[in-house]
Write a structure and sequence with these properties.
Strand content: under 5%
Mean pLDDT: 92
Structural class: mainly alpha
Number of helices: 3
Helix content: over 70%
Length: 91
């Protein structure tokens, strides 16, 4: 997998996270911790989809396997999500 693709997916995830955080917190007046969690969840989803179609296209998941893969990805990233929201809320 080419490194520029990996960097691009990560960069897009950062932009998606910050945009979601801004929209939910500033426009919809959602409390910061919940907006942070929403941003992280949306970014995780976009990263999974982009990785599935771009980064790991030779191992692309299709059909029901994509949903199962996404749920497994959520499970693995869940620890980071909890830490992310906890640290952001305490800061």
């Amino acid at each position: 997998m080419p490194r520029p693709v990996v960097a691009m997916v990560g960069s897009i995830g950062l932009v998606v996270h910050l945009t979601t955080l801004f929209v939910t917190h500033e426009i919809f007046n959602v409390p910061f911790a919940e907006a942070q969690a929403a941003g992280a969840l949306v970014a995780m989803t976009s990263n999974f989809v982009l990785n599935n179609f771009l980064t790991y296209r030779d191992q692309r998941l299709k059909g029901f396997a994509i949903l199962r893969g996404l749920l497994l990805f959520y499970l693995v990233c869940g620890v980071g999500l909890v830490a992310n929201v906890g640290v952001a809320f305490s800061v």
